[in-house]
Amino acid sequence: MVGIPVAARACVAAAVVGAAACVLPALTPGSGTPWRPLVLLAALYAVSEWPARCSLLGRTLGAGSFLPVLLAAALLLPPAAAALVAVPGALISPVAQGPALPRRIWRAARLALAAWAAAHSAVLLDGPAAVDASDFPYALLPAGAAALACCLVVTALDGAILAAAGPVPPRGAWHGLLARSLAPHAVHGLAGLMMAVLWRSPYGWPAALFVLLPMYISCWMYAQYHRERAAHQATIRALVQAVDIKDAYTRGHSERVGRASVLIARELGMDEARLDVIRFAGILHDVGKLGVPTRVLRKDGPLTPEERRVIELHPEYGHEIVRGIGFLGEARAAILHHHERMDGSGYPYGLSGDRIPEAARVVAVADAFDAMTSTRSYRRARPVATAVAELERCAGRQFDPRMVRALVRALDRYGWQTAVTADENTPAPTDTGTGPSDARPGTPARAWRIVPAGRRPGPGRGHGRGHGQAWGGAR
C-alpha cells in the first residue's frame, strides 16, 4: 500500500469490509450454501481470467469479459454465494501496473459487492423462480434488474476510487461512467440469463458454456480492434515526433491541425470513421518535411527560389512516406494535395476546384488557420478573428468556401485554444479577438471564440504576409 493516497486506502478498506460482510453468510456453518454450483461458477470465472495472465495465450486469445458468469450466478445462487463467485478470479486477474496486490484486492471486493447487489435485485423480483420455470418474458425483468444493480455498484465504486486516488477531480470522477457502462451490462445481463436458464435445463451446466463462446469471440474481436487502433496511434505518434524533432519551429502544429480538421469535418456531417481519417490527415500533413533538408526548414530569413522549390516537394515526400500505410485511406491524398488552391495555382499538381480531394480542402483550411494563430520564433500569433478574416478573404481563390464556413461555425461553437508552437519559453499572446494583442509576458493562452461578424477586422487590416501572399502553412 506504499505510495497509495490515504483516501484511496480508505476506499479500498471500506470496499473490502463491505465485501466481507456480503460473503460471510455463505461461509457460516448451516447456511445451506449450494457449494457445487458455487464452485463450478467460481472456477469458470477464474479460468476465464487465466488466458490474460499467460503471455502467449493473452496475446493470442485476448482477455474476454465474463460478467455473464457473475450475472448468471446472481440468478442461480443466494446473494452471499453469488458474491463469493467473483473472489478467486478477481484475485488472480491480470494487473496492468502496480501495486498488483492492492489492485487485485480492490477488484475482488468491487466485483463481490456488485454480484451481491445483482443477486439481491434478482431475489426481490423472484428471479431464481423465473429461471427455474423458464418463465419468459417475465425472467427478463429480474435479469435486467440484476444487470442494472451490478452496473450501478461498479460505476459508483469506480468513480469513488478515481476521486480518492486523485487523478480525476471529485466533481468529474463519475462523469460519463454510467452512460458508458449501461449498454455493455445490458448485453451481459442477457447472456447471464441465457446461461442461467441453460444451467437449469436438463442438459445442466455444460450447456451453459455454449453461451460464453460467442461472448468470448466478440470480446476477442473487440480486443483485437483496440490493439490495431493502438498500433495505428503509435505509428502516427512516431511520424509526428520525427517531424517535430526535425522542424522544431512547428512543435505541436500537427496535432492542432488534426484537431481543427476534425472540427471542420464534423460541421460537414462526416461520420465517425471518416473523422478519424481526417484527423490522421491533419496530423500527418507535413510528414514530408522529413525529406526536406534541415537547413532549409530552420532558415530564419526569406527562402530563395531554389529553397522554395525544395519546400514545395514536401507533399510528394509525405505521400511516398505514407503510401504503404493502408489504414490512412483518403488521408494519403490529403497529404499530397493540401497545398493545392481552388484557382489551380497551388502545388504540387495545380489541381483546382472539386478536383482537389475533399479531405485535402479540409486540411488546407485547418493548416492555414493554425499557421496564422500560432506563435513561432520568427513571428507572433495573429488574432483568431484576423485569421478568420484572412481565410474568408482568400475563400474561392485559395480555400474552399464551404470549409471556411464550417470552421467559422465550429469556432463559434467550440472556440480555439491558442498555444506556443516553436519556443516553449515564448509567451503566447492573448487576444480579445477584435484587435492587437495586449498580452504581458507570462500571460497564459486562452480559448477564443469568434466575435460577431460585424466586429471582425476588415480585409485591409492586419493580414499576415501581405495581401498578395496567401497563407499555406509551409513555413
TrEMBL record:
Keywords: Membrane, Transmembrane, Transmembrane helix. Residues 250-372 form the HD domain. The chain crosses the membrane at residues 66-87, 108-125, 145-165, 177-199, 205-223. InterPro entries: Cyclic_di-GMP/3'3'-cGAMP_PDE, HD/PDEase_dom, HD_domain, HD_GYP_dom, HDIG_dom. SMART domains: HDc. Residues 420-475 are annotated as: Disordered. Pfam families: HD_5 (PF13487). Residues 228-423 form the HD-GYP domain. Residues 457-475 have a biased composition (Gly residues). Residues 420-435 have a biased composition (Polar residues). This is HD-GYP domain-containing protein. It comes from Streptomyces gobitricini. The lineage of its organism: Bacteria, Bacillati, Actinomycetota, Actinomycetes, Kitasatosporales.
